[in-house]
Specification:
Helices cover 46% and strands 37% of the residues. It is of the alpha/beta class and 101 residues long.
Length: 101
């Protein structure tokens, strides 16, 4: 699992590459702590190259959303593939997040 974080002014883009499974989620969660701590702006989760997401990965998305909401920010999930879209649909995440192509 690879993660790239790029912050420009009020927008933080988090590019996720690979499988966000349970083992990877531990490291990703640690790397995203500063993003959650400063979530007053817009956080874009770029999932173009994300091939899988586990329940642990979904929990990370929820944690970021909760932090952003508490600080007046917003989370946008961008470019999810059909498999991840199906997981989002089954878990109700499509209603929780702003999804962009």
């Amino acid at each position: 699992m690879e993660i790239n974080i790029n912050k420009q002014e009020n927008v933080t883009t988090v590019k996720l590459v690979g499988r966000l499974d349970t083992p990877a989620s531990v490291e990703v969660s640690k790397e995203l702590e500063p993003v959650a701590a400063d979530a007053a702006g817009t956080i874009i989760l770029d999932c173009k190259d994300l091939t899988y997401i586990s329940s642990s990965g979904l929990r990370i998305f929820l944690t970021l959303r909760k932090a952003a909401t508490a600080q007046g920010g917003t989370v946008i999930v961008k470019s999810i593939n059909q498999d991840i879209r199906n997981v989002f649909m089954m878990t109700g995440f499509l209603n929780l997040f702003r999804i962009e192509e």
